[in-house]
Amino acid sequence: MDMKTRIPARSGKTASRVIDGEAVIVLLDKQETIVLSDVGSRIWEIMDGKKDIGEISGAIISEFDATHEEALKDITEFVEDMVQRGAVEVK
Amino acid sequence: MREADKGRDQYLRIYRKTMDNSICFLAHWELTYKCNLGCRHCYAAGRKDGKEFSYEEARPIIDELRDMGCLYLIFSGGEILMRDDFFDIASYARGQGFALRLMTNATLIDEAVSEKIASLYPLAVETSIYAADKDLHDAITSSAGSFDKTIKAARLLKERNVRVIFKFLIMNDNIGEFRAVRSLAGEIGADFVFDFCVVGKNDGSKAPLRYRLDKEKIKDFFISNDLPLGKKEADDEDLLCIAGLNNIFITPHLDVYPCIGLDVKLGNLREGSLKDIWRSSEELNFVRNINLPDLPKCKSCGLAQFCFRCSGIALSEDNDILGPSNFDCSVAAAVSEIAAEKEELINNGK
């Protein structure tokens, strides 16, 4: 399946807040906390369960001066990592 | 460095930033004064004559807390489940990205309620157990059957993978129950914490203080249970209480305080916004800026490394927010004496 059309969403088992551009994510069922990098934090903010990875990629390209390929690769890796940690679900 | 360590260090850095930059990261919200138990020592006696907030009033306050950077919400009472709209409030808060901790006597939690609580994914449900002897627990709560109901609820929550914390408030007549309550928590799979800080009522009454341990009993308690002694790291000796630094307390009448234990009213959310209170309250800024050199008696005290002074107790019991809290002095003295005795035994090669 084309990753660009997949829609990532924050898991209902998370709580989160962005503090000075850094996302703090609490994995409620695991009682763990993650702090994301600046790019990861921005992806987390944009990820509203409606935008697909292609759309998120578009926003990241314009804000972080990345190429389309770089952004798509980074977002895909980020989403896969967060799915593995239980913070994100993909539709 | 392991990934878990990196994560913890990153989180501590953010937590420190919320204190240094006055970001309201945690709010403790007392949802109601109503309670179905009658715990004889309970502090929440007064302030029952006003109107408790509605769900409609709660939503914009939750939104405001979200916008201020608040991540953690503690809901307590009274008894939180006495509110018909408790799950409306809690679900709304979860929808706004908050992590919840719930303080409840748990006696109103049946299977259906435990399912609803589990669906909130609370960080913890905290409940007080005063004794493993049900008659003593029920005598302290003034409610026959309360022990059985609370224990049943704890089991229901654990079956649904909810973290449960048993809080044991040590008083003169339940001190002998410490080990039994700790074992009971272990058997159920609940975490266990203890405290001996009985406080006065919020109407000014000092009646509950008669249940409080004195210095010698605190000392005996630590020795007989071979407990680790609370001692600050050298770097933290100047650190005082964190009331108002990155946290706030809200009452059912929407009065705002720096902390549940510090009777310095900052404002009311029916009259102004939380953001304004947080930024502009002179009282809050005063509390935030209390440092060790501001405390004339405490700043040169030799017990500093064992002292966890509470400004609220200093104010309510000793009438001076910048003075010593005599209760905390007695705890620090007890712990300090035990530490000195242990050190002497080591030095004597015993």
List the main descriptive attributes of the protein structure presented here.
heterodimer, A: 91 residues, alpha+beta, 3-stranded antiparallel β-sheet, two-stranded antiparallel ribbon, B: alpha/beta, 9-stranded mixed β-sheet, 9 strands, 39% helix, globular
Describe the protein's architecture and organization.
The complex is a heterodimer of chains A (about 90) and B (about 350). Helices cover about 45% and strands about 25% of the residues of chain A. Chain A has about 90 residues and is of the alpha+beta class. Chain A has a single domain (about 5-90), classed as Outer Surface Protein A, domain 3. In chain A, the strands form 2 sheets. Chain A has a 3-stranded antiparallel β-sheet, covered by helices on one side. In chain A, a hairpin with a 2-residue loop joins strand 2 (about 15-20) and strand 3 (about 20-25). Chain A is globular, with a radius of gyration of 12 Å. The termini of chain A are close together. The mean pLDDT of chain A is about 90. In chain B, helix 2 packs parallel to helix 3 and helix 8 (about 215-225) packs across helix 12. Chain B has a 9-stranded mixed β-sheet, with helices on one face. In chain B, about 40% of the residues lie in helices and about 10% in strands. Chain B is globular. By secondary structure, chain B is of the alpha/beta class. In chain B, strand 2, helix 3 and strand 3 form a beta-alpha-beta unit. The interface between A and B is medium-sized, with 18 and 25 residues.
